[in-house]
Each structure stands twice: as C-alpha cells, then as structure tokens.
Amino acid sequence: MLQSTGLTNSDSSATKTATLSTTRASGPCGCDSSTSQVVPKNIQERIAKHPCYSEDAHHHYARLHVAVAPACNIQCNYCNRKYDCANESRPGVVSEVLIPEEAAHKALVIAGKIPQMTVLGIAGPGDPLANPKHTFRTFELVAEQAPDIKLCLSSNGLMLTEYIDKIKELKIDHVTLTINMIDPEIGEKIYPWVRYNRKRYKGIEGVRILHEKQMEALEALREADILCKVNSVMIPGVNDQHLAEVNKVIRSKGAFIHNIMPLISAPEHGTHFGLTGQRGPSPKELKAVQDSCSGNMRMMRHCRQCRADAVGLLGEDRSQEFTKDKFLEMKPEYDLAARQKVHEGIEKFTAEVKASKAAKTLKKGPKILVAVATKGNRLVNQHFGHAKEFQIFEVDGADVKFVAHRKVDHYCQAGYGEEATLEHIIKAIADCKGVLASKIGLCPQKELRKAGLEPFEAYDVIDKVALDFYEQFMKSKELMGVL
Ligand code: CLF
Ligand code: SF4
C-alpha cells in the first residue's frame, strides 16, 4: 500500500477533526468546474446550502422529500404508476403518501434531528403540480414554522405556468423540470399520453402540448428569477444523441444546471421500457454525454435519483428511520438557533478548505480517477468494507474534481468479507487508480492491488488525501519507469 497520511482514525464530526492543508478542488460553485461560467456571488449564496444545486453543499447539507403528491398528468414510458415518479426517483421505490399536516410535522421533526437538513423538496410520488392543493399547503405550513428551510419542487413542467404566481408568492427558489426532448417526434417514443385541461391527448398531439408548456415553464422561471434545474433521463437509442440539443435550448432559456440521469430499466419494474427491453446507459456512456455538455453549462453529476420520501445527505437515505408510524410518534424539535450554529460550523470548515486551496500552487499532471469511501462532510472517513457507494474524483496533481458516484453492496457483511461482493466492487471502480478509505482490510488490499487499484488509508479532507495519494502514486510510477 502507498504510505497513508497516518492520521488518527476517528468518526467524530468533520468540522472538528479534519486537518486542513494543501487542497485545490472543484469550481467556485462546487459544481462542474469544466464550464467556464462563473457563478455570481448572489447566486452562490442562494445555492450554498442546496445539496443538489451545489456539489460542495452535497457533502454537508441534507434534503428531505415529503410524498404528498400521488397523482400525475402524463405518462412516461419509464414510469409505472404503482411506484414513485421516476423523474426524480429510482423505479421500483414506493413512498408512503402523507397529507400536508403530516408532511409539515415530519419536516419539523427532521429539522431538529438533522440540523444539516436545509431543503424540503416535493418530488412525487406523482407530479407535485398535478396535486397543487397538497403541494402548496405543505410548503405554506413549513414556511410558516421553519423559515430557514429552502423550498424546492420538481415537476414535468406541464402545469408550471399556471402556478408560477403561487410559486413566487411562496418564495420557492428552486424548481426542477424534467425535459427529455425538444423534438416532439423523439418525445413520442417517451410519452404515450398527456392530460391537459381535463382532456387526454395521445401520441404526438400530447407531446407537442408538453413540449410547448415545458418551454414556457423555462421562460416563466427565468422571468421570475427562480433557479431552474433541468433533469433529463438518458435513454440510449431514443434521446441520447439529442441531449446536447436539449442542453443548448435549456441553457438559452436560462436554466441554471443540467442533470443528465441514466434510465434505470428492468422488467420487474413493469414499465413500458422495462418490458420492451430498453436498456439504460453504461456509466461510461452517461459520462460521455455529460462531458459533451459540460463546456456549455453547469452539469450535476452527484444526483442519487432519490425516493419521494428521501431523508438525509444525498448518498445516505435515512427514510426508514422516519416512516410514518415512527415520525408521528416523535415531537418536533425545530430550533433555529441550534440549526444556525451547526450551519456556521459547516461554513467555517468549508471556508478553511477554500483558504487552504489558495495557499499553494500545485503543478498539474496527467489525470487519474480515485474512488473514495465517505460518510459525508467532504472527508475520507469510512471503512472500505462499510461503503455502499464510492465517490469518484478526478485528480491531476492540482485539482480534485468530483465526477461520479458508484453504488455497490458493502463488502463487510456480518463481520466477514464477501468475495463475490468484492469482485463487483472492483468491477464498479475498475477505471480508478486508487481507493481511499479510513481503513482497508488486508484481504481486500491484496485483491485491489491485483486488479491495479492501489489501496490508501487516511482520515482527512478528501482533497488533501487525493493529492497526497496522487503525489505518491506518481512517484512510484516514476521509480518504476512507467512515466
Ligand atoms: Fe429534492 Fe430534487 Fe429538490 Fe434536490 S432531489 S426536489 S432538487 S431537494 Fe437531488 Fe435527489 Fe437528484 Fe433530485 S439528488 S433526485 S436532483
Ligand atoms: Fe411517472 Fe413522474 Fe412521468 Fe408522472 S412525470 S409518469 S410520475 S415519471
């Protein structure tokens, strides 16, 4: 193993324990630094605590989804209405539907228990704007009682212009639209019908209405100065070649960030695409399309396609701790001052990380990928065997940029390493050169090395560990005469 940083391995709060030293990380907004766009300061402030709009924020801040919107007004071929809206969720996931009062209670409970929870999102299980009464009532109740929580909604866009005044009135500052096409002929392969003004339109007629309404929605959001994220589901052979055009159009209409997500499709989901064998893209195909758009605008690469009742940091779903039977028994512990104190600690930590970035000029070298085991807080702070996902960072000796995450089954099952699981993990991160974790057992170390993945143990800020690893990795290559 390359020599680790040798820091004490502890799971205590990131903001207290991390040693901050030489780091240079992703762009100023924490999103995709490959775009030349600089985020104005006032917008940086608006996204600084939103885990989806800011890649930096997603290491520290959490979101809560409340499932108050069961109905939908369109049909997507990747959706089975028995499950959550697949525009912001993994197919096959079912959330418990709540009434607004239950949802507000849940938000106040969680705001106390997880003070890093800064955003309340409504993203299903159907379309929030096909359920306007419950959606807006929930936002009203939460805004009245927890004014520091940001309100966020995700929609297919069909009804957005009808509700733009209400969205403005409630100060909903973040709206996601799922836009998969700008050409109705392509849309015809994705949407069999659309219901608008109490009438169901089949085929291209319906898709044309959806397309026009989505374009109007983009303009309405720009006019209202609401930050718009566009989600696009990448469907190989249907819209994969078309997404660059979608990207161009949404950018020209003022969208702030583009989230190209993979189609997840399996026969057991019972969706049209699942049953007809439509496959989703490979990680490589997805990255290629994201890369092709990244010169034009900010790209989101840290989406976890969460459930309509997701709770916690994006990479950790704590929804099972807060099922309806459990949270209804809990008392709201919302405490604005205590929350602000936690947020100040996070801000201090991130400011120190940023300041340390500027402290040293580092030389860029060839790019490599590393896989990081993390429980959040922008730290290498998880045992290899406990990781349910690895965050993938691109490192070039000067910059450390988040590029993806890979879900895996954790290697350590009931205290023992699972050989078959290790094989899958290695396959999932095979394009990396190093694996950074707070602890890695001797057996997985051996297997990782055999597969060309160098294990590296440390407990510190991801950027620092990645640069330390890079330096030692490059040195070892030089010594071996590889470079
Ligand atoms: Fe939720 Fe969506 Fe708001 Fe985020 S999720 S409503 S913008 S608070 Fe985020 Fe989840 Fe991806 Fe959505 S990771 S599925 S992009
Ligand atoms: Fe399903 Fe969402 Fe599409 Fe409606 S908009 S059909 S809920 S994926």
Detail the poorly predicted runs.
Answer: 3-36
Strand content: 15-25%
Report the sheet with the most strands, covering strand number, pairing sense and barrel closure.
Answer: 8 strands, mixed
Helix/strand/pairing category: alpha/beta
Description:
It is built from 15 helices and 20 strands. It folds into 2 domains: 14-326, Aldolase class I (TIM Barrel, Alpha-Beta Barrel), CATH 3.20.20.70; 368-479, Nucleotidyltransferase, domain 5. 51% of the residues are buried. The model is unreliable at 3-36 (pLDDT under 50). By secondary structure, it is α/β, with parallel strands linked by helices. The protein is globular. The structure holds FE(8)-S(7) cluster and iron/sulfur cluster (SF4).
Give the gist of this structure.
33% of the residues lie in helices and 18% in strands. The chain has helices at residues 14-17, 41-47, 100-113, 132-145, 164-169, 184-187, 203-223, 243-252, 272-275, 283-294, 324-327, 336-358, 419-428, 442-450, 462-479, and strands spanning 62-65, 74-75, 117-122, 150-155, 174-178, 193-196, 199-202, 227-234, 257-262, 298-299, 311-312, 368-372, 379-380, 389-395, 400-407, 412-413, 416-417, 434-437, 454-457, 460-461.
